[in-house]
Amino acid sequence: MSQAQPISASVRQQAIVWYSLTQSGDITVEQIRELEHWRQADSEHERAWQRMVGLPALLHNNAGVLRDPVARSALQEARYVSGDRRQVLKMLMGASLLGAIGWQTKESQWLQGGLADFSTVTGERRRQVLADGTELWLNTATAVDIDYNANERRILLRYGEINVLTGHDPLGRPLQVQTDDALMRPLGTRFTVRCGDGCPDTLLSVSSGRVAATLRHGQGQRVIDSGQHARLDSEGIVVSQRAVQDDAWVDGFVIAQATRLDELLGQLGRYRPGILRCDPRVAGLRVTGSYPLDDNERILALLESSLPVSIQRRTRYWVTVVPKTRA
What is the CA radius of gyration of the chain? Predict the structure, then answer.
């Protein structure tokens, strides 16, 4: 499957700034001309702009940040800067105008997903073969950027979960997977990485080979072997035995082996919109089985038929698993 080249991080940032400015109510005629000049200067600028304007109204709702006194001051200065668009953008970003639309906050996931090179929505899974033959699986609600250059191959996981089967690069460039917390360098392997969306740290699970993991904002480096699981954050790297088939989602299943019911429902909740809750009275029930992710309702029916529980539905998007009442 052919894919357009990824939009560079710098061009994405510029598109965000320009769009935020158009939504702020403070854009001047001169800046409108600058925007048109920027769009016409490079086809990549226009491509990023079109992706930007196709996003939901998230930025419009947060455009009030541009009315902050510091932001307004920066805008006033920017109006008198010479025609160097890069300098204008530098001033805007320097004033933290991107704070309300940061790439690391939960409410910004629409934005991140819309501008990411590859992304999935809730309930969707996707396989992508990269230029070097590396196979990349994206789990539900995931966004990644790809940066392959002359010196390295880098996969940036914005949020969500990916499974990576490394390819052989004829140029010998190292491959790295990056999150907020860590850099992971596979040593000929297959592994899973998860971050964001209720997971405050980076989780690494190695199913074959080895992965060298390094903390980005702290001291620590470990080699994680096949069959091991690691939690990485600014405090350190904690290694444990890998959970049984925690990458079964690649094949469309979730595997439970004496798993608490609330934990299983927590996993299933990632694949369906809305709220899926577990009544504390049945949370500790143990579940064993293999459940198909493409049919969430079927899983709930199976649980209802095999456990002393009932499925309580307030709406289609608000479901609670409660104790079964006696007739």
Answer: 23
